[in-house]
Each structure stands twice: as C-alpha cells, then as structure tokens.
Write a structure and sequence with these properties.
Radius of gyration: 23 Å
Strand order of the largest sheet: 1-2
Helix content: over 70%
Distance between the termini: 54 Å
Number of helices: 14
C-alpha cells in the first residue's frame, strides 16, 4: 500500500474508535443528571447509587474521549499537512471554540465529581447539566468542521491559495445544521440503546433488578425519542445531499443511470465492473420523491460524473443500507418501548429484555456506517470539489509504522475502557446486593 492508503486507514481507525467515546461522553451526562434529579426529588438510595455509578462512567469516557480526540488533532497535521496549511485558517474557529467548550466541561466535571456534600444541591446538579451541554456543543463544533469539508464556504481560491477568509460563513456552511442534527440524534440513539441494553442484560441475570429497571427507563427514553426523530433528520440530510453532492447520493443508492421516476433500492449486491445492482428490492419513483419531493424528478446517476471523481460505490451503498436498516429497527424498538408503558405485562417477559439487550451494539454500528457514508462518499475529495485527498497527504514515508502503533494504542485503550466499565457494573451490582 502507498502512503495515502495508510493515512486513510489510520484516520479511519482512530476516528472509528473516537466517535464511540465521544458519543457516550456527550450523552451519558444527561442520564446522570436525570437520575440525580430523581434522587433530589425522592431521596431513594437507588437513584443516588445509580447517579454515582454513572458519574464514574462519565469521567472514564471524558478522559478516553480527550485522549483519542487529542490524537486525532495531531493526526490532522501529521497526515494531512497540505489540508491544514490551507484549511486551518478557515476552520480554525470551530476547533478553537471546541477547545473552550472542552475547558468548560472539564471545570464542570471537577465541580460535579468533588461537589457531593460540599456544594449547594441545586448548584451541584446544575454543574451536571453544564457537562452535558458542553459535551454536545463540542460535538456540534467538530461536526461543523467536517460539514465544511462537504460544503466548503467562507473563502476563495486564488492562485492555489485560500484567501478572503470568512470563518463565520465557513462555520455556518450549508451542511452544518443537517450534519450536526443528524449526528447529535445518532449519538443519543446509539448511547441510549447501548446503555439500556447493558441494563436489560443485568435484569436478565437477575442482578439488582429494581436499580437496572430504573436505569433502563432513563436511558431508553433518550434513545427512543432520538430514534423516532432520526428519520426526519435523515430526510433533511438526504435532500441536502441531493442538492449539494449528487454523486454521493448516487453512490448511496448505487444509482448508475440518470433517470426520472428513479427507484429506491433496498438491499442489493453492487457489481462495480458491470455497473449494476442485483438482488435488490426496488420501489419505483421513491428515490426521486425522497430526494426532491417529486416522483417524476430527475436523479443524476453515477454515469453523469467523471470516473476519477467517483467514490467506492459498493462501500458507500452497503454502509448506507446498514445505517438505514438499523435506524429503522431502533425506531420500531422505540415504539415497542413506549407501547410497553401501557402493556406492563411485557416487562415480565424475558423476550422483552432479550430484545433490548441484543440491540445494545446496533446504534454504534449505525453511527460507524453513517461516518463511512459521509467520509467515503466524499472521496476523492478531502475538501469537496476544491482539494483532493491525494493532494493533502504528507510526503513523508513510513506511515505504516504510525498506523500499526495507533492500532495497538487504541486497542489497548478500548480493552482498558471495557475492563473499567465491566468493573463498574460489578461494583454497582454488589452495592445493592
């Protein structure tokens, strides 16, 4: 493989790990403050134990998110120096603001962790809310920078230089809102179902059932609401992509021929050599309607674009199908949960708890698939229609050694986090008996 391949692999691998840590770090503080509020209102020891258990989880993911995020920031300069040379002045503002949000989050976390029985109860609880808001703000700011790569704005290119820079226009690019909304909802859905699934499994094991049911209710509420809203966000994103990045839309659907009344494919096997999709379910006119609100609208196919500007169609299509399929399943699961609030007998069925336990990892698989669609679907551009990824990569050799080192470090980090979280669950179970 060449330098470009190793640079892409390293960025993909580290981002794939960081995005999980970041999502959990964004969302878990909200679970914690809801449990804390229930403790303040009811004074039930169960909620106090749950709050203190979740706060340790928040601290663990805050640290791991900081470590993995810092590594990513170094990678931008190390792997993509030409990108940072030109793009740095344009998108420096959201990264600077993200640093400020992280600083606020760190201060609030310190107050929260060490404020028990030392701070006024209401102020102590509010610091937990600040942790959550700061975490979400950090995520939105970083996503804004990524959105700019998909919808460049706030600069002009003259003689190969980025000039007349407007960082505010760059921040509020055409893609920032839809990407930020979609990613934030994805984080809440993935984390909500993951945490709920962990507690559902503990209920199946008959461990501290009352506590884990309370935890399940809090987590699944956030995850369920996000899962129900996600299709609306996805529709906004798809319509935005259809206007700005029609080649990405064509790759997502493996849509090779330009046509009106374009069909929507569900599933299917992509043959890139034959430029066709087999074994798919085809819904006539649905793609035209979903993309443009008109069953007779024309949708550009991959044939309309130069061959050297096409992404890897099979990868993008399969990732998109996985994301949409899991999103649909989580939406159905959310409906089942909210119906179960009326059908209380469902909570006595082991099938009910197995269903949610098995859903636990799916949200994060959907998040990873979504980022594959976003990043691979933009290729071969690192800045869409402005700079190719091959033009941005470092000329320095030996990136394979950097890649292998990062793989080992991140695997060690993942194993450590898994061990710490497993230990926390054991401690929580033992504390209740």
């Amino acid at each position: 493989m060449e330098n470009l391949d190793y640079a892409r692999l390293q960025m993909a691998f580290t981002l794939g790990f960081h995005i999980i840590f970041a999502c959990i770090g964004m969302v878990m503080p909200f679970f914690m403050v809801v449990s804390h509020k229930k403790w303040l209102n009811t004074r039930k020891p169960l909620y106090l134990k749950l709050t203190k258990a979740w706060q340790k989880g928040v601290a663990i993911f805050f640290v791991t998110g900081a470590v993995s995020g810092t590594a990513l920031s170094f990678e931008l300069g190390m792997l993509w120096p030409e990108f940072m040379k030109h793009a740095g002045p344009v998108i420096g503002m959201p990264f600077s603001l993200e640093g400020a949000a992280f600083f606020v989050e760190a201060i609030a976390l310190g107050f929260y962790l060490y404020g028990w029985n030392k701070l006024p109860e209401t102020f102590h609880w509010i610091t937990g809310i600040i942790i959550g808001i700061s975490g979400v703000a950090s995520g939105i700011l970083v996503v804004s920078a990524n959105a700019w790569m998909n919808a460049p704005a706030g600069f002009e290119v003259i003689n190969g230089e980025f000039v007349n820079i407007d960082p505010v226009a760059a921040f509020f690019n055409e893609a920032w809102f839809t990407q930020a909304l979609h990613m934030t909802l994805a984080a809440f859905a993935a984390t909500g179902f993951a945490v709920a699934g962990v507690h559902a499994f503990q209920i199946l094991r008959n461990k501290s059932v009352e506590l884990h049911k309370a935890a399940f209710k809090i987590a699944i509420f956030f995850g369920g609401v996000a899962a129900l809203l996600q299709p609306l966000s996805g529709d906004l994103s798809a319509k935005d992509i259809a206007q700005r990045q029609p080649v990405k839309l064509a790759a997502m659907e493996a849509h090779y021929e330009t046509k009106r009344n374009a069909p929507l494919y569900i599933g299917g096997l992509v043959n890139e050599q034959a430029r066709e999709v087999t074994h798919k379910i085809e819904i006539p006119g649905a793609l035209s309607f979903l993309a443009f609100g008109d069953f007779d609208a024309e949708v550009k196919g991959l044939e309309a674009f130069p061959e050297d500007e096409l992404p890897r169609v099979a990868i993008v299509h399969y990732a998109f199908q996985v994301m949409v399929g899991i999103g649909t399943l989580l939406m159905i699961a959310a409906i089942i949960y909210f119906i179960s609030l009326k059908k209380k007998s469902w909570w006595n069925s082991r099938k009910f708890w197995w269903f949610f336990a098995l859903l636990s990892p799916l949200g994060f698989i959907a998040v990873e698939a979504g980022w594959v669609v976003t990043e691979v679907g933009r290729q071969p551009w690192i800045v869409y229609n402005v700079m190719r990824t091959s033009e941005a990569v470092t000329p320095m050799p030996g990136l394979e050694y950097s890649f292998y080192m990062y793989v080992l470090v991140y695997l060690a980090l993942a194993v450590t986090v898994a061990w710490l979280m497993n230990r926390q669950i054991k401690v929580l179970n033992n504390s209740i008996g």
